[in-house]
Amino acid sequence: MVFGGSGLVGGTIVNFYKQRHPGLAEILAPSSKKVSLANCCDIRDYLMRVRPDFVINAAITTINAGSQLTFEINYVGAINIARAAAALHIPYIFFSSSATLPMGENLVEEDRLPLTANLSNYAKSKLMAEQTLAYMHRHEGLDYSCLRLAIVYGRHDHKIQGFHRMLFSIADQSMPFLFTTRGIAHSYSNVRKIPWLIQHMLENRHEFSGKTLHFVDPRPVELAHLILFIRDRLGLSRPKKIFVPYTMARSGKNCAGTILRLLTRLGMKATLPPELMFLGALYRPQILSRARLASSSFVDPFPEETVYSRMPVLLSYYLDRWSQQNLITSFADQATFNDLIKHDFTHNPQALLDSIHGDATAPFADLAAPVDLSQRKPGT
């Protein structure tokens, strides 16, 4: 069972088991309408009824959600899943975040931030969940593994979050300058590799039970270099290679927030991207150690794959998607939509409708074969 199956990480896991390797496991991915993580009874009753062989929790609320919703989904939901998993004696794979770690280089799994009131709701909830799961492993026999992800990249991020928000800003040419400092690097996590690790962890519980692992690419990436690489790949002139100081970027963010609040009073609803709460992280390095993962029995299925090597696939997927959704217009000509159909749909829909009525509404011939009524069951 996968919670959060509609998100980037959860969706990749579901696709891995359902489409890529359908014989490994039958995956259930209940929606939030079917099983609310904020409802203890929903979780308990569903898991007890289905009784899965393992459970994966990749579900989170939006990173800028209020304290109550963040607490209920990210923490209470995660712990109630753990309580059910412990009762069923099944493995529990929990996804955490590098938001629980300080800034710095060569950060190991034990380098958690102190749990204080000034942390963001998102970081606080993930940090609390990590600590409670470790407690349950020691005292309640919970068989769990925690995967800490850094900056995640991959296809099928329908919400445009994190790295893909930056990618969108570059493609939309809404990033005029570089909001970072020269030489600042971060760790990145390739979502395509995650299901391979999960399958390996499930097959080797004795090695991974009770462990927290940093799941990141071998080499960190300099943020400014990556931004300019994407810019050049798209053939754009912006962002310019001008580094904006952090104090100036923070002042700009505060001013923009003030303006948006004033506009809200006039009836115009607009918000800043939630990722701006991590603006300071763009000016400080965060490089996670992968020594524990490297020393394990897991073998990387795509050892040479990086965010750079995946960029052609990511750009092709997202530019096509965003152009079709009319979120960006600069690359609309890269879409595969037939030009004549596109023109008629935009400028002369009646002519397009008449054309379809003329030659594209006949019943499918292969479905129009005579039906032997004697073979039908009564009432059908």
Automatic annotation (TrEMBL):
Domain spans labelled NAD-dependent epimerase/dehydratase: 2-161
UniProt-listed Pfam families: Epimerase (PF01370)
InterPro entries per the UniProt record, alphabetical: Epimerase_deHydtase (IPR001509), Lipid_A_modif_metabolic_enz (IPR050177), NAD(P)-bd_dom_sf (IPR036291)
Signal peptide (UniProt feature, chain positions): none
UniProt xrefs under SUPFAM superfamilies: NAD(P)-binding Rossmann-fold domains
Superkingdom field: Bacteria
Protein name: NAD-dependent epimerase/dehydratase domain-containing protein
The species this protein was found in: Desulfofustis limnaeus
